[in-house]
Write a structure and sequence with these properties.
CATH superfamily of one domain in chain A: CO dehydrogenase flavoprotein, C-terminal domain
Distance between the termini of chain B: 75 Å
Largest sheet of chain B: 5 strands, mixed
Largest sheet of chain A: 5 strands, antiparallel
Keywords (chain A): FAD, Flavoprotein
InterPro entries (chain A): CO_DH_flav_C, CO_DH_flav_C_dom_sf, Diverse_Substr_Oxidored, FAD-bd_PCMH, FAD-bd_PCMH-like_sf, FAD-bd_PCMH_sub1, FAD-bd_PCMH_sub2, Mopterin_DH_FAD-bd
Bound molecules: flavin-adenine dinucleotide, iron/sulfur cluster, FE2/S2 (inorganic) cluster
CATH architecture of one domain in chain A: 2-Layer Sandwich
CATH topology of the largest domain in chain B: Glutaredoxin
CATH architecture of the largest domain in chain B: 3-Layer(aba) Sandwich
Strand order of the largest sheet of chain B: 6-5-9-7-8
Helix content of chain A: 25-40%
Low-confidence stretches of chain A: none
Order of helices and strands of chain A: EHEHEEEHHHHHHEEEEEEEHHHH
Number of helices of chain B: 12
CATH class of one domain in chain A: Alpha Beta
Helix content of chain B: 25-40%
CATH class of the largest domain in chain B: Alpha Beta
Oligomer: heterodimer
Radius of gyration of chain B: 24 Å
CATH topology of one domain in chain A: Enolase-like, domain 1
Radius of gyration of chain A: 19 Å
GO molecular function, one term (chain A): oxidoreductase activity
Protein name (chain A): Xanthine dehydrogenase family protein subunit M
Strand content of chain A: 15-25%
C-alpha cells in the first residue's frame, strides 16, 4: 500500500472540502473496497478522508418512503424492520452479498461505489483502461467469463458487482449527494454510467461529491432479488435480478426489472417492463419478458452462458415476485435471494 | 560453456569475495516472461546473473554449498516488521501457498521468514541492501534469476514459478552470456509439452528447496565481501493512535496505511488474530469492533481509534476459556487451528443476539470464515451447543 495522509471528517461539508480540491484524495467508509484495492496497488490515493464519523447513520421516514443514511451499515439496513418488510429486494440483495463481517463494515454509500471485480482491473500487471486509461483492455481477448452482455465498449467490458445497486435501480431510489457545487439528487439508474471511451469513470459523480443518503420512494408493491453465484454463499453474482411489481387487481400495473452482473451498471430492461405492463402474470408472459430482456445481449467469448442463465433467472424472479411460485426462503433474507439455496444442503 | 560458471567458492574464501566484489552490476531493466516489469537499477540486487552465489552459513547450520544439486530460492526480508513494507508477509505467504498448491515435498519448505533479514552481511554478500529480494540459484549454485520487491509492491508468484520453470532441463541454455542475455534466457516463456503447474510440481517433488534465509545473521555468517550502503525504506509519517483492545488502551505510532491486523500482530504482538488472505476473503482476521464482527485486514488502525476492539485474546477469563472456546475444544471444531480464532470471534459475535439459528442459518452467517481443514460440521455443532445452552 502506498503511503497516504489520513483525515477524519465530522461533517459532510468538511469531507467535501477535504477531497474536492485534492485530485489524489478519496473518501473511505467501510474500506472493504477502497483498502482492498489499495493493497493491490490498484488505487493509490494521497489522502484518505474517513467519512465514518459523519452524522449519516440513521434510517428515517421520508414522504411515505425511507431515507437511508449513507453511513448506515449494510447489516443495519438489511435488518431494519421497515426495509425488510417494505423493500424486501433491498434486504435480500444486501444479505446475499459478501459475508457477515463485510456487511457489518460496509456502508450504503460505499457499496454502490465499489469498483468492478474484473480480475484484470485488480492486477496492476495487466492492461486495463479502467485502471490505467489508454493501456488497453486485457479482458477483451482474455478470460471474459464474468464480463458484460450489454452496453460494453471496446474500451471496457466490465460489470458492476454491487447487489444492492441492482435492487435500488429497480426501485428507482434517489441518491442525495453534496459536493463542491452544493447538493443535488440523482435518480439511481443515472448514478452509474456505461464505459464508452472513459471506463475509468464508473459513475456520474464529480470528484469530491459525497453521497449523504439513499432515498427509497414510497412503494406498496412487491419486490424481490434473486442471485446466481458460483458457490452457495459469499460470492459475487454471475447474474442477478431485482423485480419491483405493482399490481392493479389481477393485472400488473407497473413492473420494473433490473439485471445485475451483465453490464457496467445495473441494467434496466425497458422493453421487458413495457411488455409486462397491463398484463396478467403468467409463466408465458414472464418467459416472453425474459426473452425480450436478453434479445440484444452481445456475448463475449466466455460469457454466453449468462444469456440462458439470465433469462431463466429473470423468469423465476418474476414468478416468485408475483406469487406464481413460492420464494425459496423467508422474504427479506439471503435464503429468498439465493438460487440453489445457501446452506449447501 | 559451463566453465564460465566456476563452482561456488568455499565459505568465506577470498576467491568468492573477490568475484562478488568485481562483478559488474546487472542491467537495470528487463521484461519478465510476458510481463513488462521494469526495475530501476538502484533497486536491483547486484549479483550478476550466471555468477556462482557466494557461500554462507544458513539458519539451519548448513552451508549454502551443501544444497548443490537442487534449485534454491533465497528470500530476503526485513527482520523487523516495518509498516513501510506492509506486504512483506503477504509475499511469502503467497509464495508458500503457490508452492504448497502443487508440491508433494513439504519438507523442502522452510518457513522461518519472520526472522529474515535483508540487512547485514549475508544480504550484502548477495548484493541485497535493505530491500526485499528473491534470488533463484540453479543446481550448480549459480544465480539464475533475481527480483527486488520494492516497498508497496507485491511479488507476483507467477514470476517465481516462471523462473523455476526456466530451470527445467529443456529450457534454453543459460550459459550463452552473462547478464542481460542470461536473464532473457532464464525468463523465456515456457516451451515444450509440460504445463507450468506440472513442471513446478515435478521440480518441487524431486529437487527444489525453498529456503528462506536471514536468521543466518544470528548464526554467524561468513564475513561480508562488499558492504553497500543500505537502501533506507522511505520514511512515511506516522501518527499517534490509541487503540482500546480487550479493555486496555494502547498508544502506538503507526503510519495511516497500517491495518488493524498488522498493528495487532506486529506492533502489539497480539498474534492470536491471524492473517490469511489479507484481502477480506477468508475471515481469519476477524475481531469485534464495538461488538460486531469485522475484518481487521481491511480496517485501518487509525480508523479503529475510539472503537471497542475485542480480539481472541480478550475472550477467556484468566485460565477459564470462553464458553465458545470450550465448545470448539469439546467438538473438535478445528484441525490445524489457523482459522479458529477468526471462527470463534465470528461465532461469539453471532450468538450475542440470543437468536436460535438452524444449521443452515449458521452456515450462511458464518460463510465469511473459510476453513481449509473443512472442520465445518464441528464448528456448526459447537455454535449450536452454545446457542441452545
Ligand atoms: C470478499 C468480498 C466479497 C464481497 N462480496 C460482495 C457481494 O457479494 N456483493 C456485493 O454487493 N458486494 C460485495 N463485496 C463488496 C462490499 O460489499 C463493498 O466493498 C462494500 O459494500 C463497500 O462499502 P464500504 O463502505 O466498505 O466502501 P469503501 O471501500 O469505504 O468505499 C468504496 C468507494 O466508495 C467511496 N465512498 C464511500 N463512501 C462514500 C460516500 N458517502 N460518498 C461518496 N463516495 C463514497 C470510496 O471513496 C470508494 O471509492 C465484497 C467485498 C469483499 C472484500
Ligand atoms: S473489462 Fe474494463 S476493468 Fe476489465 S480489463 Fe477491460 S478495461 Fe479493465
Ligand atoms: S486475512 Fe483473510 S479476511 Fe482478513
Ligand atoms: S482448522 Fe485448519 S483452516 Fe480451519
Amino acid at each position: 500500500m502506498h503511503p497516504f495522509t489520513y483525515q477524519r471528517a465530522t461533517t459532510p461539508a468538511q469531507a467535501v472540502a477535504a477531497v474536492a480540491p485534492a485530485p489524489g484524495a478519496a473518501f473511505v467508509a467501510g474500506g472493504t473496497s477502497q483498502l482492498d484495492l489499495m493493497k493491490e496497488d490498484v488505487l493509490r490515493p494521497s489522502l484518505l478522508v474517513d467519512v465514518t464519523a459523519l452524522p449519516l447513520t440513521t434510517i428515517s421516514a421520508l414522504n411515505g418512503g425511507l431515507r437511508l443514511g449513507a453511513g448506515v451499515s449494510n447489516t443495519a439496513a438489511a435488518l431494519h424492520p421497515e426495509v425488510a418488510a417494505r423493500y424486501p429486494a433491498v434486504s435480500e440483495a444486501l444479505l446475499a452479498g459478501a459475508s457477515t463481517q463485510i456487511r457489518n463494515m460496509a456502508s450504503l454509500g460505499g457499496n454502490p461505489l465499489q469498483r468492478t471485480r474484473c480480475p484484470y482491473f485488480r492486477d496492476p500487471a495487466q492492461a486495463c483502461n479502467k485502471r490505467e486509461p489508454g493501456s488497453g483492455c486485457a479482458a477483451l481477448q482474455g478470460i471474459n467469463k464474468v464480463h458484460a452482455l450489454f452496453g460494453a465498449s471496446n474500451s471496457c467490458v466490465a460489470t458492476h458487482p454491487s447487489d444492492l445497486a441492482v435492487a435500488l435501480a429497480a426501485l428507482d431510489a434517489q441518491v442525495q449527494v453534496t459536493g463542491p457545487n452544493g447538493p443535488r439528487t440523482i435518480a439511481f439508474p443515472d448514478l452509474h454510467r456505461l464505459p464508452g471511451d472513459t471506463p475509468q469513470q464508473d459513475t456520474t459523480l464529480a470528484h469530491g461529491e459525497l453521497i449523504t443518503s439513499i432515498d427509497l420512494p414510497a412503494f406498496t408493491g412487491r419486490s424481490h432479488y434473486l442471485k446466481v453465484r458460483e458457490r452457495a454463499s459469499y460470492a459475487f453474482a454471475l447474474v442477478s435480478c431485482a423485480v419491483a411489481l405493482e399490481m392493479e387487481g389481477q393485472k400488473i400495473r407497473r413492473a420494473r426489472v433490473a439485471l445485475g452482473g451483465v453490464a457496467h451498471k445495473p441494467w434496466r430492461v425497458p422493453a421487458a417492463e413495457a411488455l409486462l405492463a397491463g398484463k396478467k402474470p403468467s409463466e408465458k408472459l414472464f418467459r416472453a419478458a425474459a426473452e425480450a430482456a436478453f434479445a440484444d445481449a452481445k456475448p463475449l467469448e466466455h460469457n454466453a452462458y449468462k444469456i440462458p442463465m439470465g433469462r431463466n433467472l429473470m423468469e423465476r424472479a418474476l414468478l416468485e415476485t408475483s406469487g406464481l411460485q413460492p420464494l425459496q426462503g423467508p422474504a427479506g433474507t439471503a435464503f429468498a435471494a439465493s438460487v440453489g439455496g445457501v446452506s449447501g444442503e | 560453456m559451463a566453465t564460465c560458471y566456476p563452482p561456488c567458492a568455499v565459505p568465506g574464501s577470498a576467491a568468492g569475495r573477490a568475484r562478488v566484489a568485481r562483478s559488474p552490476h546487472i542491467p537495470g531493466c528487463f521484461a519478465y516472461a510476458g510481463l513488462n516489469l521494469t526495475c530501476s537499477m538502484s533497486d536491483e540486487p547486484r549479483l550478476p546473473l550466471g555468477e556462482p552465489a557466494p557461500d554462507c552459513l544458513l539458519p539451519n547450520g548448513r552451508y549454502l554449498h551443501e544444497l548443490r544439486g537442487q534449485p534454491v530460492l533465497l528470500a530476503f526480508a526485513p527482520e523487523e516488521w516495518n509498516p513501510a513494507h506492509a506486504h512483506q508477509s503477504t509475499i511469502f505467504t503467497q509464495l508458500l501457498g503457490a508452492f504448497d498448491a502443487g508440491s508433494s515435498a513439504p519438507e523442502a519448505v522452510v518457513s522461518c521468514w519472520h526472522s529474515l533479514s535483508c540487512h547485514g552481511p549475508v544480504a550484502a554478500q548477495f548484493g541485497v541492501a535493505g530491500q526485499r529480494a528473491l534470488l533463484l540459484l540453479d543446481e550448480q549454485g549459480r544465480l539464475r534469476w533475481q527480483t527486488t520487491i520494492r516497498p508497496g509492491h507485491e511479488l507476483r508468484t507467477g514470476q517465481v514459478l516462471a523462473a523455476l520453470e526456466a530451470l527445467r532441463p529443456d529450457a534454453p541454455a543459460p550459459c550463452a552470456a552473462a547478464g542481460e542475455a542470461a536473464a532473457g534466457a532464464a525468463l523465456a516463456p515456457a516451451g515444450g509439452g509440460l504445463s507450468r503447474r506440472t513442471f513446478v510440481t515435478a521440480t518441487l517433488a524431486t529437487a527444489a528447496l525453498l529456503l528462506l534465509v536471514g536468521a543466518a545473521e544470528a548464526a554467524g555468517p561468513v564475513s561480508p565481501t562488499e558492504t553497500q550502503p543500505p537502501m533506507p525504506a522511505p520514511e512515511a509519517a506516522t501518527v499517534p493512535v490509541t487503540l482500546t483492545i480487550n479493555g486496555e488502551a494502547h498508544r502506538l505510532e503507526v503510519e495511516p496505511r497500517v491495518v488493524l491486523l498488522d498493528a495487532l500482530r506486529e506492533n502489539l504482538h497480539l498474534t492470536g488474530t491471524k492473517k490469511g488472505c489479507d484481502h477480506g476473503q477468508c475471515g481469519a482476521c476477524t475481531v469485534h469492533l464495538d461488538g460486531h464482527s469485522a475484518l481487521s485486514c481491511l480496517t485501518l488502525a487509525v480508523m479503529s481509534e475510539g472503537r471497542k476492539i475485542t480480539t481472541i485474546e480478550g475472550l477467556a477469563q484468566g485460565e477459564t476459556l470462553h464458553p465458545m472456546q470450550a465448545a470448539f475444544v469439546k467438538h473438535d471444531a478445528f484441525q490445524c487451528g489457523y482459522c479458529t480464532p477468526g471462527q470463534i470471534m465470528a461465532a461469539t459475535a453471532l450468538v450475542q443476539d440470543k437468536q436460535r439459528r438452524s444449521a443452515a442459518e449458521i452456515r450462511e452467517a458464518m460463510s465469511g470464515n473459510l476453513c481449509r481443514c473443512a472442520a465445518y460440521p464441528n464448528i456448526i455443532a459447537a455454535i449450536q451447543e452454545i446457542q441452545t445452552a
